């Protein structure tokens, strides 16, 4: 079997972007074999757009937090999901984060049935924004709906010079 260069895969699947089932098609491709998985995970995670509302994406992102980012959530006791670290550093592929992230955080809080809503939502926002700034080396666009700045976010923001606000 002759393998195609990765550039060929990118060209083929960039043509699928106009399809309504684009994300479903990419997800199916990552299940074909390991090579396809390594090729298509970056495409699948590069522009999550409306998928930021999905509680599974929020859960996966929370599993990616480092110790310093997790520390912001300590006052809320046991809110971090249990599970192994993700196989890939999915968030490193993200290029834009829009307001849907905040909807996704709200959906996750409702799904987990937490009582503390506003304070918890803000703490999760701070943790996730700090993590995205730390891990997303290709991040070009970040929408922050309110001032949620702290030392961790500021330090990571200063290191990510490619970002447009």
From TrEMBL:
MF terms in GO: ATP binding
UniProt xrefs under InterPro entries: F-box-like_dom_sf, F-box_dom
Keyword list, A-Z: ATP-binding, Nucleotide-binding
Organism: Gigaspora margarita
All copies of domain F-box, residue ranges: 3-48
Official protein name in the record: ATP-binding cassette, subfamily B MDR/TAP, member 1
């Amino acid at each position: 079997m002759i393998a195609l260069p990765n550039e060929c895969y990118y060209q083929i699947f960039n043509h699928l972007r106009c399809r309504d089932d684009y994300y479903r098609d990419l997800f199916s491709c990552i299940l074909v074999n390991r090579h396809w998985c390594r090729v298509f995970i970056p495409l699948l995670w590069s522009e999550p757009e409306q998928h930021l509302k999905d509680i599974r994406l929020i859960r996966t992102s929370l599993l990616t937090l480092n110790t310093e980012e997790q520390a912001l959530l300590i006052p809320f006791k046991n809110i971090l999901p249990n599970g192994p670290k993700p196989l890939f550093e999915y968030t490193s592929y993200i290029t834009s984060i829009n307001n849907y992230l905040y909807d996704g955080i709200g959906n996750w809080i409702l799904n987990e049935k937490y009582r503390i809503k506003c304070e918890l939502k803000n703490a999760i926002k701070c943790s996730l924004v700090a993590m995205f700034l730390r891990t997303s080396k290709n991040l070009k666009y970040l929408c922050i709906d309110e001032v949620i700045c702290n030392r961790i976010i500021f330090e990571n923001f200063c290191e990510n010079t490619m970002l447009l606000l």
